[in-house]
TrEMBL record:
PANTHER family noted in UniProt: PALMITOYL-PROTEIN THIOESTERASE 1 (PTHR11247:SF8), PALMITOYL-PROTEIN THIOESTERASE/DOLICHYLDIPHOSPHATASE 1 (PTHR11247)
Pfam family of the protein (one): Palm_thioest
Reactions mediated catalytically: S-hexadecanoyl-L-cysteinyl-[protein] + H2O = L-cysteinyl-[protein] + hexadecanoate + H(+)
Family: Belongs to the palmitoyl-protein thioesterase family.
Source organism of this protein record: Ignelater luminosus
Signal peptide start and end residues: 1-22
Keywords: Disulfide bond, Glycoprotein, Hydrolase, Signal
Presence of the UniProt keyword Glycoprotein in the record: yes
One of the GO biological process terms: receptor-mediated endocytosis
EC number of the protein: 3.1.2.22
Protein name: Palmitoyl-protein thioesterase 1
Top EC class for this record: hydrolase
């Protein structure tokens, strides 16, 4: 085994040094969720460690925004996703070990940010996108307020409805940028400064479609017992049926798919969309499952 992951090969006769990555595995980019950071040893730090053990020599980049772990956590709330994606795009672009592409794993909101990255930042190339509990159609509800029958929850989300689309709130609070009010789809698509854009709900950006379709696989993992994400169907790119907030609609029945405004129908027909479900709460999975269903299928 080569100790360093970059093996400099001196080509005799040509005074050039070519860097060859020694690992046979495609590099991985991880993007953490809200309230988390790149590297806490109890969360993504542990994931990174397990992946390195499983795939020896692999190059892993765990997205970090800001200069410290605290800043990284704060930016998950307060740095606009557009800016986050722009910065991550630069970092990945400047990483020579990613020049042949990478696989991406998103945790919670990190999943929709990675999808935004795939759509906006084609270089370096994302190959497989794994979304763990991502909210691809946004959220309408507060964490741990899953029970629709609880009057306070519904009250709070109606209240946030008014605040979420105020332009200063959109600028200030990351989670407002993927707040999706099904009672007022028009306001959502006009005022959501991030999600409505990457979902082509304002204008159809053909570049987004082309870039998304160039993925090899888009794997969406939904946690059926999720109390953090409302509705959980958003983790499979579905949402509430427009005009009400009780009945959910699968991706395949929604306008974004039927009109193929983001190219998802084509991707589905090409066998690139994968819908995976787990019984537990938000991001609750064990390594045995992860190894068998994610690592062996998409990362080796
Ligand atoms: C479409 O998306 C690309 C990539 O982010 C961007 O450069 C371009 O300006 C967008 N086009 C429109 C019409 O918004
Ligand atoms: C790991 O998770 C899978 C899927 O939820 C489950 O079937 C399995 O029993 C779990 N294994 C352990 C050791 O907890």
């Amino acid at each position: 085994m080569i100790l360093n992951c970059i093996l400099p090969v001196l080509i005799v006769g040509i005074s050039a040094i070519i860097s060859v990555s020694c690992s046979q595995f495609t590099p991985i980019v991880l993007w953490h969720g809200m309230g988390d950071s790149c590297c806490f040893p109890f969360s993504l730090g542990a994931v990174q460690k397990r992946l390195s053990e499983e795939l020896p020599g692999i190059h892993i980049v765990s997205v970090k925004l800001g200069n410290s772990l605290v800043e990284d956590v704060e930016n998950g709330y307060f740095m606009h996703p557009d800016k986050q994606i722009e910065e991550v795009c630069k970092v990945l672009n400047n990483d020579p070990q990613l020049s042949d592409g990478y696989n991406a794993i998103g945790f919670s909101q990190g999943s929709q940010f990675l999808r935004g990255l795939a759509q906006r930042c084609p270089e370096p190339k994302m190959k497989n996108l794994i979304s763990l509990g991502g909210q691809h159609q946004g959220v309408y509800g507060l964490p741990n307020c899953a029970s629709l029958s609880h009057p306070t929850c519904d009250y709070i989300r109606r209240l946030l409805n008014h605040a979420a689309y105020l332009s200063w709130v959109q600028k200030l609070l990351v989670q407002a940028t993927y707040w999706h009010d099904p009672l007022n789809e028009g306001e959502y698509s006009a005022k959501s400064t991030f999600l409505a854009d990457i979902n082509n709900e304002r204008i159809i950006n053909k570049t987004y479609i082309e870039n998304l379709q160039s993925l090899e696989n888009f794997v969406m993992v939904k946690f059926n017992g999720d109390t953090m994400v409302q509705p959980t169907e958003s983790e499979w790119f579905g949402f509430y049926k427009p005009g009400q907030s009780k009945e959910v609609q699968k991706l395949q029945d929604s306008a974004i798919y039927v009109n193929d405004q983001l190219g998802l129908k084509q991707m589905d027909q090409d066998g690139k969309l994968h819908f995976v479900e787990l019984p537990g709460n938000h991001l609750q999975f064990n390594w045995t499952w992860f190894e068998g269903n994610i690592v062996d299928k998409y990362l080796r």
